[in-house]
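Meet my pick.
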Amino acid sequence: MAVNVETLEKLERKITLSVPLSAIQSEVDARLKKVARTVKMDGFRPGKVPMNVVAQRYGYSVQYEVLNDKVGEAFAAAVNEAELRVAGQPKITEKEGAPEGEAQFEAVFEVMPEVKIGDLTAAEVEKLSANVDDAAIDKTVDILRKQRRTFTERAAAEAAADGDRVTVDFEGKIDGETFSGGKAEDFQFLVGEGQMLKEFEDATRGMKAGESKTFPLAFPADYHGADVAGKTADFLVTVKKVEAPNLPEVNEEFVKTLGVEGGSVAALRDDIKKNLEREVKFRVQGRNKQAVMDALVSVAELDLPKASVQAEVGRLLEGARAELQQRGIKDAAKAEIPEDIFLPQAERRVRLGLVVAELVKSNNLQATAEQIKSHVEELASSYEKPEDVVRWYFGDRNRLAEVEAVVIENNVTEFVLGKAKVTDKAVSFDELMGQA
């Protein structure tokens, strides 16, 4: 029998489902007989409980389960016959005035939208490129040297400068009262490296061992300590020791401490260059992918299924609570977070997902087994034992699914870049890495 599909608005549809009462009762009886074979009740041996007693105890719950199953089967059969792609879960309510011998239900649901992708040749995309130069390698070498530096105590007359390690006692007060976390003794930090708030570093820079200073410090409004965020404290700091850094020379001995094969400075720089080029490649791909996705959204036309958007809002909300929990926020699971703040992001994700899926399907951009294997091997190449990392990825379907999704996005990116109006833009290493 043909399914009558009623259009309510845009993507919302309604169908009527009919389930024979005889089919429901037959399945209820079958399930109760199955329950009776194993159920245990006081006064009866296992498997010997009378059916009327079993029905009295379990009849309602079994009937509820059967009804849900039958309605679900009827809904699946109806949408399959009508060739509908359902978005989200249907809202099903019982309908009054059903014909004799039947139970009827109304299912209201959304369908997946038709996605119209416009002329990609009219889309404008800025494509980035970047190179790893000697300056980038030098910076990385300096970072490695700093990680292995030692310190020597300065003379009493020498003041603290950027790069020095200082040992201090400090106490901060707000409205004359010491606050939690505002007092410490023999506290060490590196001047000029952002380990402390700028006002604290500025006050300490230029001080000598044995000197004390009082200064105001304004905590940022978004400071992680909620008790002091946005408030100004008066700090008393006393410098107890100032130590100058000693950076190791870049020689073969230094290279050996890093475990670089070859043991030469040239081998170290080659190793650094390979790692930086890999990082640059991934970052450039990410930025170009973002530009492509923006272009795709701009040329696509579709209605968004409300159910899909709401489901995405739920995922984002769950992620936000998990992040709060990781940051140690008390009762993060119960935190009141307005759902509407996630709505724009959820709508974009759903829109982009539908557009990309349509583009992949219509242009055969699925990830091949060879592409997935190649991407995994590239990810693994930066590890000490790449073969172990490859096995780790291929040992879990979820991890491989994540790789597949990335490969598909890369395929989409290359496809769009091959059709759109592309403007090439070279950026510096520092700009790409967010250091400029």
